[in-house]
Every structure is written in structure tokens, then in C-alpha cells.
UniProtKB/TrEMBL annotation:
The keyword Cell division does not apply. It comes from the Bacteria. HAMAP family: Phe_tRNA_synth_alpha1. Residues 110-364 form the Aminoacyl-transfer RNA synthetases class-II family profile domain. It is an enzyme of class 6 (ligase). Its EC number is 6.1.1.20. This is Phenylalanine--tRNA ligase alpha subunit. SUPFAM superfamilies: Class II aaRS and biotin synthetases, tRNA-binding arm. Mg(2+) binds at residue 271. Tetramer of two alpha and two beta subunits. Binds 2 magnesium ions per tetramer.
Amino acid sequence: MEDYRTLEDQARERIAAAADLSALEALRVEYLGKQGSVSALLKTLGAMAPEERQEKAPAIQALRQSVFDALAARKAEMEAAELEQRLAAETLDLSLPAPEMPKGSVHPVSQVMDELAEIFADLGFAVATGPEIEDDWHNFTALNMPESHPARAMHDTFYFPDAAPEGEPASSSAAVGQKRRMLLRTHTSPVQVRTMMSQGAPVRIIAPGRVYRSDSDATHTPMFHQIEGLMIDRGIHLGHLKWTLETFLKAFFEREDIVLRLRPSYFPFTEPSVEVDVGFAIENGRRVLGGSGDEPGHGWMELLGSGMVNRRVIEFSGLDPDEWQGFAFGVGVDRLAMLKYGMDDLRAFFDGDVRWLRHYGFSPFDQPTLSAGVGARA
Ligand code: DAH
């Protein structure tokens, strides 16, 4: 009997220590298999005298049961551990925090440029670009501002120290033998010249971009943004200009009651030149565009410069002014943004203050479209 106890303890100990299922199976075979030690003990019962069998049979049966139970328990334990391990490995933690929202925003200047591109695309205008480092021929001379022209002095130009001019094809006679000074373009108007020279006529483009002047206060920064418009075709007149500006400004400000006033003015590159004012009313101490500036309590605000392209500019650009005519306009993009979205200090546009950007910036999802509104705000 003592031997059975020892055998049972030993078996249970080894079973408890079994490392894996195959070790456990080996132990099962060793104890309970056909040739197993416990099975061998059971076989001895047949040869025993009845009294002895009566005494030993329950002990051997109990031993067999005990080993069997230990094997089953250890097996269940191993299977549970394996399942546990698999569950832990395959866990998908749905409670993970959502990724942070991206912090960037679309600058109002970019947003307004996109709005303008959308509006003018609908009128058949493509977007054209030109270099910000320009030469004085494109920036001034070809725009009918020769060397001595007083308008040059009014532009507060940033000139580069004299250097060999970048190779612009000397196709125009005016450029031949003339040294070109390099500068930061003072307006987007040189893109008019570049576009006519590179693509001929007819032309329908807008040219948004950065321009530079040595000037700085609450409404002037050394770098600011303009958008130029140019239409060249046969038989273009001031009526086309007025309709185009009206259509553009109504779409941009999303109001049907935009009223324009065209005032005679002077720009070297247009003839005749007109300055365009827009009517506004005062509401809650703020200027709100809309209605005629001549109504009581209303006023006119100067908005942009424009006119019929001077025939000398068309000539400088290599086209025949007797065949091609057109209109042009130039307007400050930053100013358009301030009027539409209500900022009052231009300098803040370029400070990069995240609080300002968060407040005035746009979501990338606010894509301006004519159908959804070019001023959609999240
Ligand atoms: N280039 C002018 C400026 O910077 C703006 C301008 C006026 C552009 C009249 C034009 C125009 O195309 O026709 O002040």
C-alpha cells in the first residue's frame, strides 16, 4: 500500500511538472498505457487471492483514477494557458484613443486664391504664373514705364545688386542691348507680358502671387499678394471689363447686390484706366459691402485698378494692337480676404501666430466650389 502511495505522489509530481502536451502524453503512456506501470498493477489483481484482491483493488483503482485525473487536470490547465496566450496575442484594443486631429489649417490667402481660381475658371480663365525675381524690363519697361517714368519711383522697388541678367530670350527689340536690372516684382502685371509673349492671343488668365515693395505699416507689408487678370481677344471693350468684374465680385462676396463705380484713373499700362470702387453700408459699426455707395449712410470703397490694355504693352508683348485688344485688372488678395473674412490688421497675415491661423484658417475640406459656395466655412 505504501508503494502505491509513493507511486501516486511521484506520478502526480511529474505530471504537474510536465512542460508541454507531448511530455504529458509520454507520462500517460508510462503510467496508464498498455505497458504502463499502473496498468501493470491492475493486471496483478487477477492472480490475487480474493481477500488480498478485496483489499488491494480499491487502492489500485484509486491510484489509477488519481493519475488519470491529474493528467486530465494538467492537460486542461495547459490548454487554458495556451488559449489565454493566444487571446492575449490576438487582442484588438478598441479603446485606443483616436489619432489626434491634424493641427494645420489653410491660410486665408491660399483659400481666397483658390476661391478666385474657381470663380475665374468658370469664366474660362486659366491660372498663369511668373517669377517673383523679375527684371526691370518685364516689371516696368514692357508695361510702358520707361527708365525715367515717375511711376517707377512710386513702386518702392527692392533691387538686386547689379548682376548679369537671367537669360530671357531677347526676342523683343526693346530688350536687345539693354541691360536688365533684377528686382523683386512690385506687382503681378509682368505676368501679362510674359503670357502674351509665350502663348500669343487670345488670352484669358488670372495670375495670383506674391509681390514686394519696401513699405510697412498696418495696411502695408513688404510682401503681399495680388491677382492680375488679363483678357485679350478681338473687339474687347470696357463693357466686357465691367461685366467680368461685376460677375467676379458678386460670386466672391456671395451677394447679388454688389454695386460698382468705375472712376477714370491713370496707369501707364492701361488706356483708358479705371479705378473700381464698390458700394458699402455701415452695419453695427462695420462696413458691409452691398448696395450703391450713393444711398444715404452708404459709401464707396476703392477696390482695384483696371483698364483697357495700353496698345504699347500689346506691342511690347509681340502682338499687333490693331488686331488684339483687351482689358486687365489688378487687385490685392490680402485686401479681398480682409474684406470678406473681417480681419483688420494685414501684418497678422504673416506673423504665423497659431492662434490667428486657428481662428481665421480653413479646413482642407473647405474646398471652394461654385455649387457649394466659394466661401464655405466649416
Ligand atoms: N499693377 C497695379 C498695381 O500694382 C495694379 C493694376 C492696375 C493692374 C491696373 C492692372 C491694371 O492690370 O489694369 O498697383
